[in-house]
């Protein structure tokens, strides 16, 4: 942690925040405060520089045009890439995930460069849009319970050698490549297609981000009964569908 306060940066809420992705910021803040950590939150609009001194950066999803604008501005600004180089934790959702990769197809049908912070490439799927509930098992090395979420994307994301799948789907499309992978991660950079918001549905992922920031194996437990009940309900609903 760079200071005694945990610095949480929400990147481009004006462009990238669909399907309740704002909730991810609220959950990280809450989970940190429940452990007695002081949190300083910065919402960085797309006309502002991205500070490089954050501990955790959250990036949400977006429609195709805002996604292109966000990629252009993030490339020009350079702050997010510098923060990642400094070892900051980046957690990205859907359009944000695609932007962290090498490239994606933009709203004009052209290849748009991403930030190259994750070894993934996204193309536009030619089939039906991937929409619906997702159930997935998160990479075992991260020691997290099953992931539940909601996906809504046309993009399909292929992982390179330098990225590991974040999860493997039991239900839903995830990366849409047909190989069962969902999202990607490498070091302290994470990407997922899960909305929901994903951290409200899976707060143990927020705890993972906090553990990585603090460089600790475990955090003091908090009452997760409500979240566990929600996960069980969503898993049952998804399996019944
Ligand atoms: N525009 C992107 C796609 O459709 C991302 C959508 C999203 O963030 N929900 O693939």
UniProtKB/TrEMBL annotation:
Function recorded in the entry: The lipid II isoglutaminyl synthase complex catalyzes the formation of alpha-D-isoglutamine in the cell wall lipid II stem peptide. The GatD subunit catalyzes the hydrolysis of glutamine to glutamate and ammonia. The resulting ammonia molecule is channeled to the active site of MurT.
Gene designation per UniProt: gatD
Listed Gene3D superfamilies: 3.40.50.880
Protein family membership: Belongs to the CobB/CobQ family. GatD subfamily.
Domain CobB/CobQ-like glutamine amidotransferase: 7-202
EC numbers, comma separated: 6.3.5.13, 3.5.1.2
Subunit structure: Forms a heterodimer with MurT.
Pathway: Cell wall biogenesis; peptidoglycan biosynthesis
Catalytic activity: L-glutamine + H2O = L-glutamate + NH4(+); beta-D-GlcNAc-(1->4)-Mur2Ac(oyl-L-Ala-gamma-D-Glu-L-Lys-D-Ala-D-Ala)-di-trans,octa-cis-undecaprenyl diphosphate + L-glutamine + ATP + H2O = beta-D-GlcNAc-(1->4)-Mur2Ac(oyl-L-Ala-D-isoglutaminyl-L-Lys-D-Ala-D-Ala)-di-trans,octa-cis-undecaprenyl diphosphate + L-glutamate + ADP + phosphate + H(+)
UniProt-annotated binding residues for substrate: 129
Record protein name field: Lipid II isoglutaminyl synthase (glutamine-hydrolyzing) subunit GatD
Catalytic residues as annotated in Swiss-Prot or TrEMBL: 94, 195
Pfam families: GATase_3
UniProt keyword terms in alphabetical order: Cell shape, Cell wall biogenesis/degradation, Glutamine amidotransferase, Hydrolase, Ligase, Peptidoglycan synthesis
Coiled coil regions in record: none
